[in-house]
Amino acid sequence: MQRTDFSQMYCSLARSLNIVGEGWTQLIMRDLFLGNRRFGGLQESLGISKKVLTERLETLLAEDLVELQPYGESGRRFEYHLTEKGNELGPVMLALMAWGDKWVSNEQPPVKLVHDLCGQPAKAQVVCSHCAEPINFSNVTGQAGPGMPEAERQRIQALRLNWVGSESD
Fold first, then answer.
1. Measured by CB atoms within 10 angstroms of the end CB, which terminus of the chain is less buried, N or C?
2. Given pLDDT bands bounded at 50, 70 and 90, which one contains residue 168?
């Protein structure tokens, strides 16, 4: 089944989902975060076909989320390693995991996270970069940013959505 292409939408969420929104991609990224870096290991862990795994890894390579690094003495075998861009998906995936632990696993998480620095159980939480208080869509207001096309800015203002002004106002 052909997926909808969101790459031309103004929305950063839509464009991000175009790259990492497919389910297999998320599971491949999860395994890469856990250190499973070889094609055969990914295929075995996920039970995914070679074709689908190859396609998803090609997308991750093309989008600079992963890179190939040689291993072994011959240098002809490669592992997939997360790039800086790929590593920055970690908090997003941890937040999705926390949601799943609460709402899908009925507060019985299959994996318990422990923060290495303090040794305490940890859950992902999205906080304000300024004051460190938790944020969600009920306590933030969207403003048109510099990347929003003028036509989209006018459309949103006409709909009177929960958006105000712009960053330059």
1. N
2. very low
How many whole angstroms separate alpha carbon 113 and alpha carbon 127? 18
Residue 81 near residue 69, CB atoms below 8 Å = yes
- Put simply, whether the predicted model's pTM sits higher than 0.85 gets the answer no
Per-residue pLDDT of 109-160, as tens digits, reads 999 999 999 999 999 999 999 999 999 888 988 888 888 888 888 887 777 6
A 10 A CB-CB count for 157 gives: 14
How is residue 98 written in tokens?
């926390």
Strand 142-144 relative to strand 163-166, pairing: parallel
Axis crossing angle, helix 23-33 with helix 39-46, rounded to the nearest 10: 120
Among 166, 162, 126, CA closest to 143? 166
